[in-house]
Amino acid sequence: MKKLEYTFKTDRLFKTLFVKHPDLLQHLVSELLNIRLESIEQFLITNPEMPPEAMRDKFCRLDVNMIVNKQRVNLEIQVKNEGNYPERVLYHWAREYSTALPSSKDYKVLPRTIIINIIDFPLFDCSEFHSEFQLLEVSRRELLSDKMCFHFFELTKIPDDINADNMLLLWLALFKADTEEELTKIKSLEVKIMDQAINAYYNITAESELRERERLWEKARHDEAQALSNAKEEEREIWQSIVADKDAEIAQLKAQLEALNK
After folding, report:
1. What residue ranges in the chain does DSSP mark as E strands?
2. Higher model confidence: residue 143 or residue 234?
3. Which of 140, 150, 190 has the alpha carbon at shortest distance from 170?
4. Which helix (H) or strand (E) holds 200?
5. What's the pLDDT at 102?
6. Across the strands, what pairs with 152?
7. Angle at which helices 22-32 and 192-205 cross, to 10°
8. Contacts of residue 83, Cβ cutoff 8 Å, sequence gap at least 6
9. Cα–Cα distance measured from residue 205 to residue 120, given in angstroms and rounded to the nearest whole number
């Protein structure tokens, strides 16, 4: 099997593709949120920019923020579980929600804020690939407010069998695909929107712009690794110097004690 150089999970490609093709993003969001495409009357990407300097930052979040029918929606891809992921998601929700309140406005104008996470690692102890969380009373299951909502789609749990009748699984299979054969399998189903997404993928991966972004990101990784290595070497040299000084002091004290005991 021929491995893909870039996948839909590559965050630089992910953001580039869906910012350039908002119609594809709209189809994707309608499936992820289980809302009819025709019901989306308002759809706006609020952070389409991706400045080149940000690509040098290892911790740059290449998520997509949207307004969908007056709701704030944040979509993010995460490939590795770097720890404390639920807390990270809560933090991002709190930031999105709190910054939506205009000065001197009532709390009731705060919009419903939804965080969608497509993750390539198991997070919950369940077999379901989709988990949705809201604010519920523990025993009565009463909803406190619908303004907090989290969706998690675990790619490692989606079934291998896909067909043209399940668009959500088709989209997730697209993100899960790591080989040319997997993309070909999806394309063979002859689903128009999947064909458009795969064609857009090949067009973008052929562009020099994406490759430059990847070069900057790889450079940032190497620079960080080198800086960390240099810092560790400097720390080792400092500790060696401290130990040597202490050894010299101890040797001097021993010599003084021996002189006194004579």
Report:
1. 43-45, 64-68, 71-78, 113-119, 130-136, 143-154
2. 143
3. 190
4. helix 192-205
5. 81
6. 117, 131
7. 130
8. none
9. 21
Decide: pTM greater than 0.90: no
What residues have CB less than 8 Å from 183, skipping those under 6 apart?
Answer: 4, 174, 177, 198, 201
Looking at the DSSP bridge assignments, the partners of residue 135 are 145
Phi-psi category of 114—alpha, beta or left, where left has phi over 0 and alpha has psi -120 to 50? beta
Pairing of strands 130-136, 143-154: antiparallel
Cross-strand pairs, 113: 72, 148
Judged against a pLDDT cut of 80, whether residue 3 lies above it is answered with yes
Give yes or no for residue 212 having a pLDDT over 70: no
pLDDT of residue 49: 81
Distance, CA of 151 to CA of 129 (rounded, Å): 10
Rounded-to-integer distance, Cα 262 and Cα 252, Å: 16
What is the three-class DSSP state of 149?
strand
Res 56: pLDDT: 46
**More confident of the two residues 253 and 151:** 151
Higher pLDDT, 13 or 230: 13
